[in-house]
Amino acid sequence: MTEARRTTASRHVPVLSQDVIGYLDVREGGTYLDCTLGLAGHASQIARLLGSSGHLIGFDRDPRALELAGERLQELAAELGERMPQVTLVGEAFSRVAEFVEAGSVDGMLADFGVSSMQLDEPERGFSFQTDGPLDMRQDTRQGVTAAQVVNEMDESDLANLIYEYGEERRSRRIARAIVRARPVTTTGQLARIVAGSAPTMKGDRIHPATRTFQALRIHINRELDEIRDLLEAAPRLLRRELHKPTGRLVVISFHSLEDRIAKDVLKDLAGKGIWNVLTRKPVVAEEAETARNPRARSAKLRAAVMLGPGELPAGKALEYQDQGSGRQLTGFAQLKTEKVQKAKGAPGGGRKPRLRK
Ligand SMILES: C[S@@+](CC[C@H](N)C(=O)[O-])C[C@H]1O[C@@H](n2cnc3c(N)ncnc32)[C@H](O)[C@@H]1O
After folding, report:
1. How far apart are CA 217 and CA 151, in angstroms?
2. Cβ–Cβ < 8 Å for 86, 55
3. How many whole angstroms from 84 Cα to the centroid of ligand 1?
4. Torsion of CA 138, 143, 147, 150, to 10 degrees
5. Nearest CA to ligand 1 atom 18
6. Mean pLDDT value across residues 319-338
7. Fewer beta carbons within 10 Å, N or C terminal of the chain?
């Protein structure tokens, strides 16, 4: 790894890393899936705990991130020697994860959404308004339209809607008008100045005036919200849910309200359908010591869920069961218990349901 690359990778601090490891319940010999490798910060921490019989699968759609993550994991392999787990890296969007990973094979999956520090730090990627670079913002540099194409070609009212919806920016119309008047807009610095000129910082604002507009463009260009929805809906098929084994876990970290809302809704929705239990009643946020070291952690919100095993009841719910003998509604008996009773009576399936003792 070159010195410049090593600096980028080693400067990178993964957010909420202790909580990630704790909620994933990383165990030796397990299979763990990091859907957002980035600079392999979390992935390296997971890999350290897996041992030689474990398997780490990492996804990143950014070819440069995948390359840097690979180099970092190679360094880790040199350090761990025989204790290094098997590693598989996939350079694809995480919405396609189910095409590459065997159903029911994953003990834990992590998704740390958004942009990596490398993407923000490298001006030529066009994500940052702090440094001047070409307006690009594509995570997968092999495909898709660039931010320059969007700001220069999109209809003014569509642009305003996009900035409003994905940036939650109330002054979107004014900003879109200013952008259209200034066309062609080619650099991040130019765009940041146009936005700041048309919608200056308001009293009480703690962020740069261009933050929301940049967020909106990034979300649109990378289809970020659709990607998250697709991933979360695919997760239950991938996670392990065997009887008598710890079941698979999901950990997601979001950085703004649009991402977090999707995570919250999907976790709750699938918990309601008896797929998993949500482990975080409220999102986990970073403590002050972490935000002081790593300002990016300030907006991070972690949510986690654990798959329900076959026949296991959702937290706080009792299975409703009709006692066919008396016709009374009974509650509180797990399916497992009924199966046991059936077996003992030698009447597996089909037959009359056993009477359950009160
Ligand atoms: C916040 S960083 C992850 C940092 C990582 N946890 C670490 O510790 O280094 C997010 C990474 O996910 C990648 N990414 C974001 N959305 C993706 C998607 N839909 N599919 C695949 N990779 C994605 C980005 O390219 C970026 O490298």
Report:
1. 9
2. yes
3. 22
4. -150
5. 93
6. 39
7. C
Ligand 1: nearest atom to the Cα of 42: 8
CA of 356 to the centre of ligand 1 (A): 50
Q: Cα–Cα distance between 356 and 272 in angstroms, integer?
A: 26
CA-based R_g, the chain, Å: 24
Q: Which residues contact 148 (CB under 8 A, 6 or more apart)?
A: 126, 134, 135, 136, 185, 186
Hey, what are 264's tokens?
A: 């919250």
Which residue among 139, 143, 223, 230 is best mutated to probe the pocket of ligand 1, counting the most ligand atoms within 8 A of its Cβ?
139
CA of 99 to the centre of ligand 1 (A): 18
- pLDDT tens track for 210-223: 999 999 999 999 99
Alpha-carbon distance values, 345 to 92, 191, 311, 351 (Å): 52, 74, 19, 10
- Ligand 1 pocket residues where CB is under 6 Å: 12, 14, 36, 38-42, 59-62, 65, 93-95, 112, 114, 116, 139, 227
Could you tell me which CATH number the domain at 141-221 has? Answer: 1.10.150.170
Q: Do the Cβ atoms of 236 and 276 come closer than 8 Å?
A: yes
Query: What class has domain 3-116+224-307?
Result: alpha beta
pLDDT of residue 296: 86
**Least confident residue range of 99-113, 118-132, 147-161, 311-325:** 311-325
Strand-pairing partners, residue 33, are 57, 109
Q: Give the position, in ligand 1's atom list, of the atom nearest the Cα of 62.
A: 25
Provide the 3-class DSSP secondary structure of residue 274: coil
Where in the chain are the domains? 3-116+224-307, 141-221, 318-358
3-state secondary structure 153-210: HCCHHHHHHHHHHHHCCCCHHHHHHHHHHHCCCCEHHHHHHHHHHHCCCCCCCCCCCC
Q: Which atom of ligand 1 lies nearest, measured to the CA of 14?
A: 8
Q: Is residue 358 scored above 90 in pLDDT?
A: no
Across all residues in the chain, what is the average pLDDT?
Answer: 87
Alpha carbon of 15 to ligand 1 centroid (Å): 12
Neighbouring CB atoms inside 10 A of 67's CB total: 15
Q: What is the model's pLDDT at position 230?
A: 98
